[in-house]
Amino acid sequence: MKLIFIFVLFLFCFSCKPIASESLFNGYNLDGWHIDVPAIDSIPTAKTPFIVQDQMLISLGTPQGHLITNKSYDNFRLDIEYRFTGAPGNCGVLVFASTPRSLYKMFPKSIEVQMMHENAGDFWCIVEDINTDNMLVRRGPEEEWGITEGKKRRIKNLTDSSENPLGEWNYMTIECVNNAIKVWVNSDLVNYGYNATANSGQIALQAEGAVVAFRKVQLTSITEFSE
């Protein structure tokens, strides 16, 4: 019996594909990322809102725009540690990002996982869509739903009480598997969406008005059992 158990365990382990983990931020520079800030195109004095300071990635909030990975990803878990360093405000993580400046000539086509203070974990549909349970309650009247300007693109999270007090670090995990997205904030499951209209793409961090520090942006590939 013991031999059978060992053999089954061997087959189980052999069928598992390796799980790769990598830090998307190396603590020293923005290698692996590129910046898309529309104001830089037309204002000669505009400076990048994304800097590295004390081995942290800082989003200065303005001018508004995005820091986008050069690579695209699918089937992954993203672990992020962030905090507002001053006044609370808005920021977010975009997954499944693709065509730049698709919404309001600013936001890349994507699904946003909101970091806005007291709203962490909301979904915002940006020319991509996703379903959740209780959509009428959490998104509003169905006839007003949409993925472009003027439509109800926000899907509220399951709890607004998961964030730590201002100034403290928050721990967000975003798990993207196939067309589903799960979000945890400080270990609380705060959102779950499925039937997304995308299942791969770039990852982006926002500059959207508030100063936010990131000390961890860790991506772990999620792999299924081989046939």
Describe the 3D structure.
The chain is globular. The strands form two sheets. Strands 1, 3, 4, 6, 11, 12, 13 and 15 form an eight-stranded antiparallel sheet that branches. The chain has a seven-stranded antiparallel sheet with strand order 2-5-14-7-8-9-10. The protein contains three helices and 15 strands. A hairpin with an 8-residue loop joins β8 (110-114) and β9. Helices cover 11% and strands 36% of the residues. With 227 residues, the protein is mainly beta.
N to C succession of SSEs: HEEHEEEEEEEHEEEEEE
Q: What fraction of the residues are assigned to beta strands by DSSP?
A: 35-45%
Question: Radius of gyration, Cα only, in angstroms?
Answer: 19 Å
What's the tally of helices? Answer: 3
| Biggest sheet features | 8 strands, antiparallel
Give average pLDDT, whole number. Answer: 91
The backbone outline, from C-alpha atoms, is: globular
Task: Tally the beta strands.
Answer: 15
Structural class: mainly beta
**Helical percentage:** 10-25%
Termini Cα gap: 26 Å
In short:
The chain has 227 residues and is mainly β. Helix content is 11%, strand content 36%. The model is unreliable at 1-16 (pLDDT under 50).
Secondary-structure blueprint of this entry?
Elements: H1 2-15, E1 21-23, E2 33-36, H2 38-42, E3 50-53, E4 56-59, E5 65-69, E6 76-84, E7 92-97, E8 110-114, E9 123-126, H3 135-139, E10 154-155, E11 170-177, E12 180-185, E13 188-193, E14 202-207, E15 212-221
